[in-house]
Amino acid sequence: MPLAPIALTCGEPAGIGLELAEKAWAALRLDLPFFLLADPDHLSGDTPISVIQDPAEALDVMPNALPVLPHPFFGRCIPGTPDPENAEGVVEVISRGADLAQSGAASALCTSPIHKKALKDGAEFPYPGHTEYLAYLGNVDNVVMMIASDALRVVPATIHIPISEVPATLTTDGLYETIRITADGLRTQFGIAAPRLAVAGLNPHAGEGGAMGHEDATVIAPAIARAQADGLDVTGPWPADTMFHASARAKYDAAICAYHDQALIPAKTLAFDEGVNVTLGLPFIRTSPDHGTAFDIAGQGIANPSSTIHALKLAHQMAKSR
Ligand SMILES: NC(=O)C1=CN([C@@H]2O[C@H](COP(=O)(O)OP(=O)(O)OC[C@H]3O[C@@H](n4cnc5c(N)ncnc54)[C@H](O)[C@@H]3O)[C@@H](O)[C@H]2O)C=CC1
Ligand SMILES: NCC(=O)COP(=O)(O)O
């Protein structure tokens, strides 16, 4: 039986997501099947599309036209300017895509970028991002955000919170869960039989024996010790400034970081165009490009589809090996 197509959400219609979906179709139409969940009226008109009623139709349609599972939106599509009338539609599309991935009608969910503030303002969206919303939709308490490329895999243990809240949010139990879910995800979704994890410290020099902060010793080290007692190959806490040069990266399969930018700066610096955001711990496969809505270039036709193409390819590979 052929693999079901991947569900690709439209994301914020004022961003670059729709342009990238059209470019990804042109690049992948003969390689892997996906369908776009979007309002057909929001598309450029430059790419042949076929409106489908059932995801399975995408398998036949894909070589000749971009399959679109229609979702009507209330607002218009103005590049660079999100219409609050569209916010509800953006959220509904994510939920529909997750339902299709959970039911097996889609082999995976690939999400295009959303604008978090536009959703908060327009739809009172209470989540800081897809990751947390998908955890809710998948009915799981804990999920992990991983940014993955051939150069590096990183996991921020705390995600979209103010930097001032990081020390209090980082707990031994939470970090232990992050380590456990990451190791499990590397085994089951990346095919790494015995994953090696390196955990970054929070403070400069990983606290330098308490001279530069206490959390490395009192919060992070106990989580590592607990994971090691479970038999996991985990080391740290390591000074974050020396974890990402080439020979350091060769020693681990994923770096667990204390906060968003500690993880995403090295990931996006090394591989902005190839990076894929993967949610681990969900009952279905979810990938996404690593970048955002890029309002500054929306509608200009210059957005680079590479990260979206990598996200679709990785989702396909994960679905095939399930
Ligand atoms: N998975 C998601 O839904 C994500 C959503 N976001 C959201 O996107 C919005 C904008 O975030 P920013 O920090 O401005 O990051 P951004 O990634 O949208 O843009 C940063 C810079 O990179 C450029 N850029 C991004 N993607 C590009 C592409 N494919 N081709 C060429 N240039 C590209 C943009 O033009 C801009 O100059 C925010 O609301 C943020 O929360 C950010 C990251 C992921
Ligand atoms: N900075 C990464 C990002 O914003 C992705 O968040 P999510 O929407 O995938 O949870």
UniProtKB/TrEMBL annotation:
Instruction: Give me the reactions it catalyses.
Output: 4-(phosphooxy)-L-threonine + NAD(+) = 3-amino-2-oxopropyl phosphate + CO2 + NADH
Encoding gene, per UniProt annotation: pdxA
Organism of this sequence:
Shimia abyssi
Which Gene3D superfamilies does its entry note? Isopropylmalate Dehydrogenase
Name of the protein in question: 4-hydroxythreonine-4-phosphate dehydrogenase
Q: Which cofactor does it need?
A: Zn(2+); Mg(2+); Co(2+)
Q: What's its job?
A: Catalyzes the NAD(P)-dependent oxidation of 4-(phosphooxy)-L-threonine (HTP) into 2-amino-3-oxo-4-(phosphooxy)butyric acid which spontaneously decarboxylates to form 3-amino-2-oxopropyl phosphate (AHAP).
Summary of subunit composition and partner proteins: Homodimer.
Question: Could you tell me the Gene Ontology terms of the biological process aspect for this record?
Answer: pyridoxal phosphate biosynthetic process; pyridoxine biosynthetic process
